[in-house]
Amino acid sequence: MENTNREKFGSKVGVIAAAAGSAVGLGNIYRFPIVAGNNGGGAFLLIYLLILLFLGVSLIVAEFIIGRRAAKNAVGSFKKLAPKTAWPAVGFAGVVTAFAIITFYSTVSGWTLDYICRSVFDNIRGDNLEAMNANFNALINSSWRPYLCQALFIIMTAVIIILGVQKGIEKGSKIMMPILLVILLILLVRSLTLNGAGEGLTFFLKPDFSKINEKVIIDALGQVFFSLSIGMGTMITYGSYISKKDNLVSSAVSICICDTMVAFIAGMIIFPAAMAFGITPTAGPGLVFNTLPMLFGQMHGGYFFCLIFFVLLAIASITSLISLFEVVVAYLVEEHHFRRRNATLLTLTVSIVLGIFVTMSLNEHSTLKICGETLFDFLDMITANYFMTIGGLLVVLFVGWKMKKADTIDELSSGGTIRSLFNDLVYFVIKYVAPIAIIIIFVKKILD
Ligand code: PHE
């Protein structure tokens, strides 16, 4: 029988929880504030929300349609739906992108492990910005800590996959993510009541229209794709596990809402606190890794909140990393007949080896630079802003123009059982709005 070795999720909540677990991660709490800070705050937020509203749900749905229709991995899905064409190359590009993301995502995941250890010994909180900076720089310049933490993180991910306990993790994250949300809300209150919080709040919420340019738009587009895990096969792979009865549109809406809520609250915490502490919005990683320990330093019960927060952040990033692994592993198992365990071990080994170079590029003495940027920043930018967005464009073109309309409608309506105006709207967006919007953004960028 086909597909016997495919992981199956028992209920709709199972897949949605997994897909939401993939979406919510470092992209929301770490990357979103950094990219927003580099792009003028409020102006970025506005463009981000517009892109999310118009494209986010439809792109998730488009990937779900491909995955569920074909019930295969990212490459196999295109092969099955468009045999003897070049379309499987889109899936293959997704597998490569997943690999590239693993290498730098795991660097930051590793930092969360380091911060957990230091939270245990309580030598991370403080009120002195120089000390916080020194702490963070000591970590990225250490000759062993970031590498060990990164490798441990990747190994933990692989062990979870080999033991086949992802579903357990996802079940667990249904309890843990609401706890993360509660902690974020507590942090939000603390941040907003700091002296001098107003400046950061204005920076994040008040759009300065003069700041909107092509870079802001491309960065926002890339951040939407990165944050929702779209444009590189994750949602195709997870879509292949969704039951035929489930409503794809409402699932995608739930995922977008969860994801955006976490990113928005993260911004509402980070900017007011950072600016109150004298950290500039363009401080990069320090924006998060310095601001939060300082915020915990100013809280009653800061020790516990700090520890719990970093544990939950690590869990949120592990569920994202699992989904990245899943793209590669499902591909190797189904297209190259690897055993799941071997596929996972191979992915683990290559990720650790390549990941070390990426982490090394952040060391102050490193010469691992491409186009003047560290390997880390280069991979981060090129995957989110180009690979994922162009991947997403090809996905909507495939669903809107290559797949048979009857098949697409059948998936959208779950075999004709769900009829709603939303389905027609989503179909319209997939076919016309999304491709045109993405193409316009790129053409403007090229002409710039
Ligand atoms: N969306 C994840 C996050 O926000 C990152 C991710 C990207 C995961 C692509 C899977 C695929 O952290």
The Rg value, from CA coordinates, equals 21 Å
**Overall 3D form:** globular
Bound molecules: phenylalanine
**Mean pLDDT across every amino acid position:** 93
Strand content: under 5%
Contiguous runs where pLDDT drops below 50 for at least 5 residues: 1-5
Q: Report the sheet with the most strands, covering strand number, pairing sense and barrel closure.
A: 2 strands, antiparallel
Estimated helix fraction:
over 70%
Detailed description of the structure:
The protein has 448 residues and is an all-alpha fold. Helices cover 77% and strands 1% of the residues. The protein contains 19 helices and two strands. The chain has helices at residues 12-23, 26-38, 42-70, 74-81, 88-120, 129-141, 145-163, 166-192, 197-205, 214-228, 234-239, 248-276, 285-289, 291-297, 302-336, 340-360, 375-402, 405-412, 421-447, and strands at residues 369-370, 373-374. The chain has a two-stranded antiparallel sheet with strand order 1-2. A hairpin with a 2-residue loop joins β1 and β2. The longest helix has 35 residues, at 302-336. Residues 1-5 have low confidence and may be disordered. Bound molecules: phenylalanine. Phenylalanine binds at residues 22-23, 25-28, 101, 226-227, 229, 232, 234, 320, 323-324.
